[in-house]
Specification:
This protein is of the alpha/beta class and 225 residues long. The protein has 3 helices and 13 strands; from the N terminus they run αβαβββββββαβββββ. The chain has helices at 3-26, 38-43, 140-145; strands spanning 34-37, 51-58, 70-75, 86-91, 104-112, 116-125, 130-131, 137-138, 153-160, 174-179, 182-189, 203-210, 216-224. It is elongated and about 60 Å long. The protein starts with a helix and ends with a strand.
């Protein structure tokens, strides 16, 4: 091999090594994550100490937004009767605004003893949910009818105020406005999963009750058809 060919080979080798190191550092040096179901993680003790990626649904009432780090549980998505195993998740980063009871979640982190994952990544996946505005009253009616609307279970049409959507666990999940550009507004409390596609200015159908403290406690939130 002549000198020029040898130098070219050395150069290619160096480039390959640089790329490999960059990939390793870009992943944080944490290694690959094995994608598993909740059932697989729960029943396979050989995974303890390994980095895993697990998909499931958030168990209703298992989380407390005020705790630090945040803790919650997930079950397999097909476990409709909530009779199967659940694994616990510890997560100390920002929670997506779409997080809530029953939402699909994919967590990545190290599996410890007791079926606990210390996660460094959390993704949520919510199906889009649509509902017709037919029969829904405009949000302005809550203001016009005042006290007579308090405590009544109603369906209203409203818009999402820009920048108001928050993760669950606070006083209000988002602010609803009577018009896309403002008008009468009401804080909305809602602890379940928000539909995919919910964003600033979008029209929504809210089902729930307007309380005396001026908060609309929603039992359902859907995008308007």
């Amino acid at each position: 091999m002549n000198k020029r060919a040898r130098m070219r080979l050395i150069g290619v080798t160096v480039i390959i090594l640089i790329v490999v190191v960059a990939i390793f550092l870009g992943s944080g040096g944490t290694g690959a994550a094995y994608y598993k179901t909740v059932e697989e993680v729960y029943s396979d003790s050989s995974l303890v100490g390994e980095r895993v990626k697990v998909g499931g649904v958030v168990v209703a009432g298992s989380w407390d937004r005020q705790s630090n780090p945040m803790r919650f549980s997930i079950r397999d998505e097909k476990d409709e009767g909530d009779t199967g195993p659940a694994i616990k998740v510890v997560y100390d980063k920002g929670v997506p605004a779409t997080f809530g009871d029953g939402v699909g979640a994919i967590v990545t982190g190290k599996l410890g003893e007791g079926h606990v994952i210390t996660a460094d990544d959390l993704l949520t996946k919510c199906p889009s949910k649509y509902e017709s505005a037919e029969g829904a009253m405009p949000l302005d009616d809550l203001e016009r009818n005042g006290q007579s609307m308090i405590g009544k279970h109603v369906k209203v049409t409203a818009f999402i105020k820009a920048g108001s959507v928050k993760p669950p666990g606070g006083d209000a999940r988002f602010i609803a406005t009577a018009k896309s550009d403002g008008g009468f507004e009401v804080p909305v409390a809602f602890e379940n999963a928000l539909p995919d596609g919910l964003k600033d200015g979008v029209q929504v159908i809210l089902t729930g009750a307007f309380e005396s403290d001026g908060v609309f406690v929603a039992t359902d939130v859907a995008l308007s058809k």
